[in-house]
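So, can you check these tokens?
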Amino acid sequence: MLRCPTAVRTLRNLMENHSHIPSAHQKAHFHYNHTDSPNFSRWTAKECYQFMYARPWHKVVDFYADMVKGHTSLSGLFGKETQAEHEDAEIRGDEKSEVVSFPVKDRGGRWERVTFKIVLSYHGGSFDGWQKQPGLNTVQGLVERSLGQFVDERKAQLLKDKNLPLEACTVVAGRTDKGVSASQQVCSFYTWRKDVKLQDVQDAIDKAAPGKIRVVSLTKVSRDFHPNFSAKWRHYLYIFPIDALNGEQDGQIWINSCTDVNQQNECDKSAIEESNVDVMDDDNDELVHGNKPTMLEVSKVNRLLGHLEGKLLSYKMFARDLKASRNTGPPTECFIFHARAIETSIPCVKDGSDMKTMCIELIANRFLRRMVRVLVATAIREAAAGADDDALLKLMDATCRRATAPPAPPDGLCMVDVGYTDYDRRNCLIP
């Protein structure tokens, strides 16, 4: 094939003139240009990530492990009596209370099925998240394998014909990420078998992974019940260690001016990729690195969060990994009923000591992907920078998600409860 010398020279010149343009793998990431006065006091994305991960997270993970075993409770941290938590699994065969909430017309034939509502407590550090994935140890995968023995004969034969394992199909109130624990996660499954006993269902799940997952309550419900669509609110708690690297005083968190995540926390190398944050180049980091704050007040975090209560807002700036169809409009709107922060202590069973923590409680009608973790990290960053109390509200109008902080570690997050009645302040842990 003949080539035109002039065209070849032109193409070569274009390539040389544009050789300085970085490729997709060499993309430079810049610090978001906030326009308010604390702009240069804010930690960069890299500094936020290092500060958040440089914490004794293993103590929080151990606390959640004891919670799943029934040795501790979340409400006990705040001196409240447990309302919905149970030391032993509650099994109810009486369906009246549930059927009243989810009425359904009498149906026969193939619609005459039995639906089970299962409330689970599980240790996030022992699983690769909720959602079932090939080759991973997930909560959904474990539960569905455990419930496989209760599927009806028709479905069992269908799975056998397709050379698929004998597993049930569950629906959950909200999928949790890897490392996130749950006090009372809600899921359901149904079967057309009439001989399935509640005690057998509980035993099948509890025996699957003792000490890592536990049935909190088990109930037969109407077939109209859906753990996700029927829910009216979700309840999360984030426990942040403030046994600071340099010490703590009077509700203030003191931090090192240069934290080293490699020395303080044995997190795996993929954690920064999972946080879905663009870490800046060193050259750009130097441009915004100055005399950064070294302490923050828990009361300041509480005031920042308080401005979110009682408002329907779009939290797309605080979300991560959303589908394109959910980037704008109502799909990103959430109504937060309750948002508070308080200082408390959690027991460390292994050494008999207590560790001071900041607990952040959030209750909303719904949460977006990684929204809680981003909201926690951003509130901490804004409090340290001395931003105005309405700083989180102002960030709603940002034009780029780098305006918010990278997600906080999943180790501190716990799904407390899911509500199917109207929100009631008595369900709150922090007054």
